[in-house]
Amino acid sequence: MQSKTLEQLTPAAAQTILANLPERIRAAFIERAAEINFPVEAVVEMALAGYLDSESIGFVDCKPNRGQD
């Protein structure tokens, strides 16, 4: 059986990440998700992808270290 590579953060993975963050950071993610009407996993994914590549929106278009030449 071949494993499938995920291009998006799953809700379960996002909850694992959120559970290990300080409360104020976790609350900020949840608040931001509610503000923009996005699932919290999408907001976590956007934050991570944006940290790695300021031009990306999510993992699909994330190219770590883009523009750091």
Can you describe what's shown?
By secondary structure, the protein is mostly helical. The protein has a domain of 42 residues. The protein is built from three helices and no strands. The chain starts with 10 loop residues before the first helix and ends in a 17-residue tail after the last helix.
Topology summary:
Blueprint: H1 11-19, H2 23-36, H3 40-52
Helix pairs in contact: 1-3, 2-3
Protein name: CopG family transcriptional regulator
Organism: Chamaesiphon polymorphus CCALA 037
In short:
This protein has three helices and no strands. It has 69 residues and is mostly helical.
- Provide the residue-averaged pLDDT: 88
Note the beta-strand portion: under 5%
Largest sheet, if any? Answer: none
- The outline comes out as globular
Helical proportion, percent range: 40-55%
How many β strands by DSSP?
Answer: 0
Alpha-carbon distance between the two ends? 39 Å
Protein name: CopG family transcriptional regulator
Q: What distinguishing features does this structure have?
A:
52% helix, 69 residues, mainly alpha, globular
